[in-house]
Amino acid sequence: MTNAPLHLWEGFSGATVQPNGVLFAGLDRKLSPLPESTDAPVHNPSLNLAMRFQVSGDFEINITATLTAANSTYFLFHGVIPMVQDEWYYAQSTFKAQIVNGDWCYWTMYHPDNTESGNAAASVGTNVVYTFKREGTELVFLTNGVEVTRQSDMCLFADGVVYLSLDEANVGATFLVTQITTTGTVEETPVRSVPKTSGTLRDKAGKFRIGTAVATYPMVFDEQYRTILGNEFNQITPENCMKFQFIQPARGVYDFYESDKLIDYAERNGMEVHGHTVAWNEATPQWLWDGWLDGSITASEVGEILDEHIERLFGRYKGRMVSFDLINEPFLDWTDQLRDSVWYQALGRGYIERALRKAHEVDPDVLLFINEWGCEEAGDKQDFLFNLVVELQTAGVPIHGVGLQMHEDVNAEYQRSWRPNTPSVTKAHLKSAIARFKSLGIEVRVSELDINQYQNYADTPKAVADWYAQYLEACIEEGAHSFTMWGFTDRWSSLNEWYDYYTHGNGLIYDAQYQPKLSYRALSNKLDEMARSLSSL
Questions:
Q1: Residue 156: predicted pLDDT
Q2: Does the active-site annotation cover 448?
Q3: Where are the catalytic residues (predicted)?
């Protein structure tokens, strides 16, 4: 047996490395539906995805623990890195064991084709050894040597890798891990710099910011993802790890582990960080919604919570971020009404000014953006955002830029009467929008570009590639602050459906096997064409 180094847990949320082991404390971090939703809160994957084991054939992993106050302790063994979005979590090829009250085990096996689950009594005392192993074509989970369940392995670990994650669901409940042993090889996964090559998007862009949203788990664990990311882009936006519900999963409890990793990766690879986001109703943690609605959190406390959160987040990364989507999607659909968020209900329209002033006070060098969808072409919603910026400027509020999201579709149902392969936003629309907002003296960025393809005609990939190139050209010609796509590979894409993850989305510039698509080549060629313009930046 090989001992797994427990120091790998150092810095994890809810994990404290002690002389005799690692103490895990539950944070109750979970995805939070809006109050009107009938969906129950969905727990995120365990916060503590730290270890990766290389295995072959039969293998065994033993976890020795002391349960000090564990009520619902999770042990998850992943054959594929979990997928996390702000709305959902997908455990891909995973065996999950949940020990409840120290004597009962609920187990679930997640597989692309089917999911198996069950429950059984478990032999668990104050001190326990959990064992997970593969024997032939079966997976076995034991507690103190007593078999809890034995199931067909369903090829969950066919890739020869096991990722281990641990968590405690209940706030304040803890368990101490004193030893982990394995028949496999333990791989340490520090954040790394990656070698740079010439001829990449980043290389050709020069000083122009070409960026992507980043999923933290593959940034750390997936070598192909990590290498392409550091080689092709000079700016990154955290896809999820800086959102309010991820940073402060329980009141006054902060989780900076993943965002620390992202900042570290950016600095090691000479990349700028554009932060995302604080005030967004869809990323409001459940504890804040519940407290506000039941009256245990007052309006004045909501304001204090907003201030404190900004102080902690912007204070921690002072001088390490260039810009930030402080306010995300403030408008309700296509109206000039603000979304009915906790912030708006408690603080009224003034929550936007309050957040901007506080963030600028903490770090005056960070450019503060309002990020919104549906404002890329002329119309009422663009007017609403324009007028909001003017209102803030008139009041002397520090507002430095707007983000135009640009989640585009081609051949969707609502476009059935359109000419095939036509998105709603043209190059002329985008150039006009950039110029209009820049006339206010602020920055403008394309912030979340993807082009979701529905019905595919023979020429759809080429048409989509042309649109990517035209949008990039518009940004360079009009002096946009940056050009950012909402991810770069279909393998890790918000366009993937939570209920059918393995049917990947198709709206990004690399496919699910990390091969560059026509859209990538179109961007690369466009940068070549505009080399003279880029050299003057």
A1: 95
A2: yes
A3: 448
